[in-house]
Amino acid sequence: MRHIYFRRVFGTVLILLAATAFAQAPEDEEIFVPTYSLGDQTLAINLGLFAPLFITGGAEGISDGITRPNLTLGGVGSIAWGSHLTNEIKLGVEVGGSFSFTPNRRPLFLVPITFESSYLLQAYPLEFPVTLGLGMSFARLGEDLKLDPFIRPGGGIYWNYSSQWAFGAKLRYWIIPQIYSARSEAGRDESRIGNFLELSLSALYRF
Hints:
elongated, 207 residues, mainly beta
């Protein structure tokens, strides 16, 4: 009888210990919910696809007409640094480039340099940055080199892997006006607005 009694007591103790351990597990497990304050910095590397969409403008002016860009699907890459003002707002600088090809295989290179603002929406473990980049873009086709205004609205999604690393994707819309004055060599009729799409994967490092 004593043997059966001790077995029951021992079994009850084991059950209680197991229940206590499971009850404490959520408290002991480290859950990282990122929050940012003034001066927190990030560094992101982006690589992906570059899709020429269409070109507006033509002989009647930059507001009329839509034409195909006659460019192949290409690639894009960039590196971006940012610094938080608040938990939601971040300002930074991004330098990158893209390439695609004309029908006769001439490469078109676009190298934008932008100041970018971001507004961050959070739903742990995900983050959703909404961004706007403004700057200038160098365009090179063969021997021709041109500097144009650059506008890039977009958004993305990041999954927080750790307190330092997050991984995700970005979808951004490139707008590049090429504006010529009436007195320029090309003439105002050659003014165009290029419209492109970027879909890239991103790795984000916090420090």
